[in-house]
Amino acid sequence: MATTITMPQLGESVTEGTVAQWLKNVGDPVEKYEAFVEVSTDKVNAEVPSPATGIIKEILVKEGETVPCGAPIAVIDDGREAPPAPVTAPAVMANGAANGQARSPGAQTATGSGAVISAASVHASPAVRRLAREHNVVIAAIRGTGQNGRVTADDVLALVRGGGQPQGLGAMPYAGEAFHSTQDIAKPVPAPPHGAAAMYAHPQLGQTIPLTPARRIIAERMLESKHTAPHAWSMVEVDVTNVWAWRSREKEEFQRQTGHALTLLPFMLRAVVEAIAQHPLLNAKWTPEGIHINAEINLGIAVGLETNLVVPVIRNADRLGIKGLATAAGDLIERARRNRLSVDDLQGGTFTVNNVGANGSVASAPIINAGQAGIVTMETVIRRPVVTKDDAIAIRSMMNVCLSLDHRVIDGLIASRFLNAVKARLEAMGPTGAL
Fold it and tell me: What Rg value do the Cα atoms of the chain yield, rounded?
């Protein structure tokens, strides 16, 4: 019996989706709830789980093709043949050869501990399976280090470079399942970029990189913002010596309690929401009818990934203290890096904060997120001599805070007052406070 799979609707306002990458080929087996295709919309990229167990019978939409939500994209045949009898894995030589024996998708491999592993259950993209075939590597004999135990290109190449010795086979928990431990399940590792995304992450001179759906959307939004909103820019210098000491005092206990690293970001977020409450025009947007001041303060956090940029949102950020903001931001950033954000996570932002200082930047002029009035950056913290208020010279931790603003909504006077409010709040935070 065949099951037709349709393009999912990944959000209330989403009407179409683009097939970014097929994770399975025609003829490949797929388990129920196993990701088999990656779909991209103007809101989010997501891996789509299979609704049934079976074999990929047809692929109806090519990679890069955009179709309406509900349109058929693939057919899965749930009629399955009995698997062949287990066989012993052939020795893999240093050059990657496996005694010249080809293996079918349903073949099984015995590990050094005697466990039997089904190649059909191995999570790997078509590109990785093709790479394994090119090197004559038995993909079922590789322990995947990618997301949810997926075998990655790096896993295959590491096996080839290492003389063909599979890694960690003795640690396989049970036969016939994906290769991951309970630790992997708790903290899945993002799969490395592939295809055009891999080319973007590792560019070469003279190379033309095809546009991924995400890169095309980023380009369109940035161009729209620059062409629509007249950008202006301002910057203040902030002494974060005391708040840095506070963060240093609390970071180990916070990590132990929440599992998230305590950075300077949540302190900045708290300073921003307090400054916005004092200067609401920063939480506004330009409309043909007038300047609309949003009722909620929903802070977007710009997260730079290897091949993408996403801005997940902390809703009602003004209702959270520093600890709540740190936990919320840590969760969103972690899920962004693992491609686990939902459409709702990316909607409703009213103002954006970008921690470019984490990458060593000392000053920047970011592009405003479309539909907002401003975006603020926190730059890298630098220890340097500073003349204090009493004319002494001291070594202080200094950080630039930069603001790009929509000059249709905000004038320079209001922008300066907002930045000085952020500065005052950050400088007032000290190590005697409580998160």
Answer: 26
Distance CA 146, CA 150 (A): 5
Predicted TM-score (pTM) above 0.85: no
pLDDT digits (tens, 9 = 90+) for 50-97: 888 899 999 999 988 889 888 999 999 877 554 444 333 333 333 334
Tokens 């975006």 map to which residue?
A: 375
Active site residues: 407, 411
Residues in CB range of 26: below 8 A, 6 or more apart: 56, 57, 58, 59
pLDDT > 70 in the chain, percent: 75
Q: Is the dihedral of CA 292, 229, 10, 303 positive or negative?
A: negative
Mean pLDDT on 30-36: 86
* Helix (H/G/I), strand (E/B), else coil: 309: strand
Strands 29-30 and 299-304: unpaired
The model's confidence at residue 112, banded by pLDDT at 50, 70 and 90, is very low
pLDDT digits (tens, 9 = 90+) for 380-408: 999 999 998 889 999 999 999 999 999 99
Phi, psi (rounded to 5 degrees) for 16 = -150, 165
Taken in order of first residue, the domains within the chain and their CATH numbers are 2-77 (2.40.50.100), 108-192 (no CATH), 229-428 (3.30.559.10)
SS (H, E, C) 92-161: CCCCCCCCCCCCCCCCEEECCCCCEEEHHHCCECHHHHHHHHHCCCCHHHCCCCCHHHCECHHHHHHHHH
Q: CB burial class (10 A; 0-12, 13-18, 19+) of residue 324?
A: middle
